[in-house]
Amino acid sequence: MSEDVQKHSVHTLVFRSLKRTHDMFVSDHAKSIALDDESHKVKMDVKLKAEYGAVLHMPVLKECKDRVSLLSGSMQSHQSYTQPDDPEYLITGTHAYPSGPGVALTTDTKMHRNPSDGGIHSMALALPPSQARQDASRTAASVGDIHRHAGGIERSHPHSTAVSLMEGGGTRNSALMRKAPTMPKPQWHPPWKLFRVISGHLGWVRSIAVEPGNQWFVTGSADRTIKIWDLASGKLKLSLTGHISTVRGVAVSSRSPYLFSCGEDKQVKCWDLEYNKVIRHYHGHLSAVYDLDLHPTIDVLVTCSRDATARVWDIRTKANVHTLTGHTNTVATVRCQAAEPQIITGSHDSTIRLWDLIAGKTRATLTNHKKSVRTLVMHPRQYTFASGSADNIKQWMFPDGNFIQNLSGHNAIINTLAVNSDGVLVSGADNGTIHMWDWRTGYNFQRIHAAVQPGSLDSESGIFACLFDHSESRLITAEADKTIKVYKEDDTATEESHPINWKPEILKRKRF
After folding, report:
1. What is the pTM of this model?
2. In contact, 396 and 403? CB cutoff 8 Å
3. What is the number of structural domains in the chain?
């Protein structure tokens, strides 16, 4: 009971103290503080010296004299800033005061008239290059120079002549006008042409991987099979069955004879290619697994799923090392590299995340895209990468994901990107179009829309995956018409026969 009384009494005392404080000040809150002449004078002196010290020695214009007279009392206390004896100066024009402190006005320059706009333009155009360079090197022209040039040129060139000089005097004007930034000329790349069409799958072909020896490649399909094809001839070598739904991702290890696959059946499988059997399953994802990638230097597999997570697996022990959470929608694509950041993911929540593999946490989140990010690709030589979305293809710089530029023009849902060492970036879209880009400049040098397989609907022309082989001389695409198409460079093409239809447009690199 005593504790309750003690608490209540302290509470009451506090509020009483607050009330006394409030009553003390409430009556004065609207009253302004009385002006102190001495303080005001000190304040104005400090303000004059700090803000207007550089121009106090200059003459006062007639129209401002009344305003300045209010401050004259403060100025009289400082002898170094006293007004000149003759306050009747009236200077108008392009330069209303001398060119620097301590330069006195002469009788000729006390009064002068304003040159017209035409006179100013014609003066700028009529200056010889040497004179333009001299004038550019000066800090400021004197009033006499301006008066002399403006008056003389205006008399010799009327307004109409000045306009004609502006229209026709490009060479003279080039030194004075700032040149607009232009897009650098893109590197020439030979065009690509369709080389082979491979049929055999009974459903959409969703994924591709090329083995390290460049002898064969693997495809995963909506017909629930994985097929291995000879790269040189395009003939089927082997079919692997075991998934019970669409195979969305395949990867071939360069460190062991293993093939990894994932699918919409939530399964991640490891196949031993010596026995063509599944030897490991990686259980943990709660929904369809959309993509996977192998770490290039350590025995780690990374998968991403519709459950909005990416998971890091130890290949040998099947242990789930990390579950990378943070995305708020399907994680559609994942890429690994040896350097930091070692894992990059793109999601349908329109963000890209760069991950710290050791901590299992996000290093950076890139929010520039406005639509789902369905594909990522890393440049094989540069420390850069690109992301594909329905709004744009964007290029980024590692390690922090600094934005480089937009590649605009592929107006479709972009499902896949591939890039080779020569700087050819390929984007494949839902409407069956393939665009070829110059990586450095973002110039779109070729567009391909291959015909669908006979018997297929025109709507079944989507590109789901594309990949360069290890020689980078062939491009393999996986398509919705159940075919695999192989493209190669046109060996007969030259820069003369296929010139770059390039125009040095003003560079547009939007920062969003």
Report:
1. 0.65
2. yes
3. 1
